[in-house]
Every structure is written in C-alpha cells, then in structure tokens.
Amino acid sequence: MKSIELKTIRIETIVKLLTYIIGIIGFLSVYRYINILYSASFILLFIISMYFEYKKTFYIPRWVINILSVLVVIFTIYRINTEELITQIIEALLIIYAVKFLEEKKVRDYMQIYTLTLFLLAGMGLMSLDIVFSVFLIIVVIMLSTSFVLLTFFSQDHEMEFTRQVAVKVVLKSLYIPGLAIPLTVVMFIILPRTQYPIFDFLNRPDKAKTGFTNKVRLGAVSNIQEDSSVIFRVNMDKINDDELYWRGIVLDYFDGVSWSATDKVAVPHNVPVSAPGKTIRQTIYLEPYSDKYIFALDKPAFISIRGVKRFDDLTFRMSFSIERRLRYEALSILSDTLIENEIEQEDYLQLPESISQDVRGLAGRLMKNKDKMEYIYELYRFFNDGSFRYSLKNLPFTRSPLDDFLFKNRYGNCEYFASAFAVMLRLGGIPARLVGGYRGGYYNDVGRYYLVPQKNAHVWVEAFIDKKGWIRFDPTPASIENFALLKKGSPMMRLRLALDTINYYWYSFVINYNLDRQLSIIFSIRSGIKRPSIKLNLKNWWVYTRYLLCFLVAGALILLALRRYRLRKNVDMFILHMFLKKMKRYGYEKKTSQGLEEFVKGIKDGPLKERGLTFVRQFEGFYYKDIKPSREDIKKMKEAIKRLRP
Fold it and tell me: Are 8 and 162 in contact (CB under 8 A)?
C-alpha cells in the first residue's frame, strides 16, 4: 500500500543546494575588490564542482585538495605586499574556497565552507563598510542559520528524507535565530559604549579615491581625475546658488614652469577671525578616504571641527596624517569672492621661473598696455573667454613648455591650463596671484538635503591680490558651470544615482559614523524631551490592571489559535486528516509515524469505531492519492463521517 508521506526530498540535497547558494553569495561579496583572474578562476572551479555533484561519479581526492590549498598559501606569501595585504588574502581565501567545493563533502567540509564564507564577509568589511556590506551580512546570517540547522539533521542520518511540508517548517523554524538575533544586534549597537579608536583599524584598506590635489600639481595631471565619477565627499547643508559652489582644498603659490606647489606655511590659531563679506554657511561633511592630508570645505572656511586639523593663513586646513578612512566633520564657511587682507609677502606671489618665454612675456605686455591693474585683470579674463580658447580634457599639451603650447599652439586645455596661464600673466603684470585647488559644483539631493561632489568636479581657480581689497577670486576657465555637468543634474540617470546615493548617505551618517558623541547626544535629547515617569502605582485599582492583563493574554491566545487554524486550513487535506486523528486520539488511538492510515485503523479493536474509521479513510484516500481537490460537498461528507466516529 502506498504510504501517506509522499513527495519527499533528501536532507543531503537541501544541504548541498543551500551550500552552493552560499558559495555564490560569498563570491559576490568580494569579487569587486579582487583581480579579474581570481574571479575567473573561482567561477571555473565552481562550475567544475557543480558538474562533479551532478555526475556523482568522480571527486578530486582529498590529498590533492590539500596540496592545492598549500600551494595557494605559499604563492600568496611569495607575492605579499603590505599595501594590498587584505586584497591578496581575500584572493587566496577565494581560491581555497573554490577548491573546497571540488571534494566529496562530509559534515566537516560543509562547516569549513561556511567558515570560509564568514572570513570572506569579514574581508569585505575590511575593504568597505558601505550599505552593500550590511545586505550581504543579513543574507549570510539567514542562510547560515538555516544551513546549520539542516546540517544537524544531516550529521545524524545522511539518507534522511523530509516531506516538503516538513522541510518548509524546518526552514521557517531556523529563521527564528536571525529573527531574534538581528533586532537584538541593532539594540546592542545603539546602547553599547563606542570608541573612536577601533581595535582592527590597522587592517582596514578603505576604497581610496584618486585625487589630483597634493602639494605639487603638474599641468594636465587632473585630467584623468576629471573623468572619474566616484564620490570624493558629501555635504549636508542648505541648497545655495550653483555659481557659489567652490570647495576649497589647497593653495598653490610656487611655479617652476611646469608644476605648481604649495610652500611651507605656519599654522595659525583656529580662533583668528576671517575677514570676508558674505553670509555664513554651516556644513556637515563626509569626506571619503583619498590618501592625502587636505580637508575640503565651502568657499572661505572660517572654522573646521575635527581633532588634529591645522589651520593656515590662506584658509586651508590640513591633517597631520594621510586620510585613510572616511571622515565626518563640521565646517563654518563664508560665501564671498573676496578675502580681505591688508599686507602680504608680495614677492612670494610674484615669483616666476626664468624659463618663462619671451612670447608669454610679450603677450602679457601687449594686453597690459595703457591699463591699470583692474583693467588688466578684466582684459585677461576677456582674452581667455572670447571664444578663441576651448575647454578640453583630451590630448592636453604635456611638454617642456606647456604654457606656450597652450597659449600659442593648441589653445585648448583643462582648468589647470587656464588658471596657470591666468596666474602667470597676472604676476608678469605685477599683480600677486595664487592658484586654489579644490572642487567646483555638485549635485544636490533634495531627499537627503546634501550635496554630492564627485571626483570629476576637481577644479583649479585663481586668487589675485588687489591693494585695499585683498584676495579676489577669478575663474578664467570658460563655461565652467557646464564643465561640471550641473546642467545635467535633472537627467533620469542622475536622479537615479542621487536616489541610490541617499541610502549610502544615511548608512554612513547614522551607522558608520555612529559613535559615543552621538550616543550621548541621543541620551541628552531624550532626557530633556521626556519627563521622568512616575513609578507609583495605585494599588486600590489592582482589579483594573488585572482585567487589562487578562484581556491581553486572552487576545494573544486567540490570535495564536487563529493562526494555527489558518495554517491548517490552507491545506484542506491536512486539515481534515488532522480533525480525524485528533478525534481518534481522544478515544485512545494514536497513529504512529511509520503507519499508513488503513494500517492504523485496522489496528483498532472496537468494531464499530474501526468500521466508521475505514469509511472515512477510503473517502479521504480517494482525493489525497489522486491529487484531487475536494469540493465543499465532499468536505462536508468527510466532516460528517468524523462526527459519526464513536466507540
């Protein structure tokens, strides 16, 4: 006779399926950080292992697997590089991970695969703690929780089989573990004391952004940066006019004919006031790691709140160490194109190399003829913006005399060429000048209320010193707003990018940058905003509290009962069978798991009960084994048969 427990699935099949899904997740978590050759090797070995599992006729011997793993470790040690230590370790782990899939798997092999998955995820966390990491973390926790529970059954009996209903039930029960752990983890994350000095920070290799701003900038060196769409920083602030978006980083004052560099400067106290006409803007800046020391802020930074930063008299701010991790800091800036200053060392800002050609000197002389300083500045500005020069990032003049090639031969270049030529010709006219390097423009996210500034917005402009006025900003690069794609911010792709970046912004600001200061501010805000509750209870009204408690317990019990009956009613066959077995159990007859229905009923000693039981069983089997869904009339007949069951 056919058993009632049909449509079974082996526990081994479930474990293997979950393990291979986990393997794919482990690879996806780190593939964007590793060399493409390692990714291709993993995919090839992984496909071969799936072929072995499908054929089940051949597995690579364990001793070969061990030798391969040792060779991978030796090769990794041989090519080790401290600058790419984490990447190389992850690459080695990934190959060992793939090799583990090639062998015939026992319980310990599955455990080793799961352990390697956690190591790969930890490696991903060392590379980047963006929102993607949290998604992979949650998925891996859920998958591993289910796999560990099923592996427990597998370790007891490799041939064990589950019905689909039982398999689904086991999986759902296993989800209780992450279902409780994840909310508890969130609570612990919020309340546990935190430190600004993570223990394993020395292992971190964050995503380093490329940057064109060091203490020495060679003409044309920023062109590759201005084609890079990666984010350099985000700034939480109110929206302002696009033409006011100048993000100051470095001041370059020494020119050798090819490169600009920043001379050594003396730090000044942070409380020195900034003389600049304009309104003050407060910003919260999230700066990405980029392996240099300069701190960026809007226009004329008056104050930056970050431990260890030094301020200089040219309104630049610099850390004493390279920025190798994401920084969050507050800044106060003044929106102004003028920095009032009475006295400067003019010789420092009039310096020019002897290599400046006579052609350049002659051009400056012709443009300055019969003009005062301000007239000369505006004449220079018109010279670069009359249409004879154009902005370009391609085939830049990268020669021994780049300024001559730019001015007299090619007549095109990026912002560095325009700013350099402008500053040199100002100095030739006796006007102190310097270059300011930073970023221009940005994309405003209306949802998160912040500016997103990508690397391609890298920019250089000029500050000229005018007596009795101070340093005045001039940007000679033509059509500079268009160059930074501000006019394209309404495009569908940019709107999509800003929407996706909103998630990352909130992740960085509320999770990655969640620290002890933020914990204390939350506590203080709660204390100030909520009155201290009274803990006195009026014991005279104890019956009122008891009634509320009883109502709560009864409501909870009714909800649980309703959920149980709902699950049973979803499968009509099982619900009817459950009613039958429950009634038989009431009369002292309980079906064993190994028994078929007819075998169970024929074992009943009471004749009338046995006969009525067989009547029900034959009705039930007529639907169950034929996979026919019973009609309402059929269900009614079976329920009536159950009601007639009496000893």
Answer: yes
Which amino acid, residue 125? Answer: G
Answer yes or no: is 207 within a domain. no
pLDDT surpassing 60 at residue 270: yes
- Name the token pair of 129: 């703690």
Q: How far apart are CA 25 and CA 357, in angstroms?
A: 61
| Sheet of 259-261, strand order | 216-218, 259-261, 254-255
Q: Which two tokens stand for residue 355?
A: 């290599």
Query: Within this chain, do residues 177 and 296 fall inside the same structural domain, yes or no?
Result: no
Supply the pTM of this predicted model: 0.60
Q: Which domain holds residue 464?
A: 216-508
Q: How confident is the model at residue 397 (pLDDT cuts 50, 70, 90)?
A: low
Residues 360, 363, 364, 370, Cα dihedral to 10°: 160
Contact 233, 290 (CB under 8 A): no
* Closest alpha carbon to 94 in 153, 158, 28: 28
What is the rounded distance in angstroms from the CA atom of residue 139 to the CA atom of residue 474?
52
**Which residue in 431, 413, 430, 411 sits closest to 474, CA to CA?**
431
Question: Same domain, yes or no, for 22 and 70?
Answer: yes
Structure confidence at residue 362 (pLDDT):
93
Dist CA 372 CA 476 (whole Å): 19
Last residue of a domain, one of 472, 487, 508: 508
pLDDT tens, position by position, 46-80: 998 888 888 777 777 878 888 888 888 888 787 77
Q: What is the pLDDT of residue 254?
A: 92
Residues 352 and 475 in one domain: yes
Across all residues in the chain, what is the average pLDDT? 79
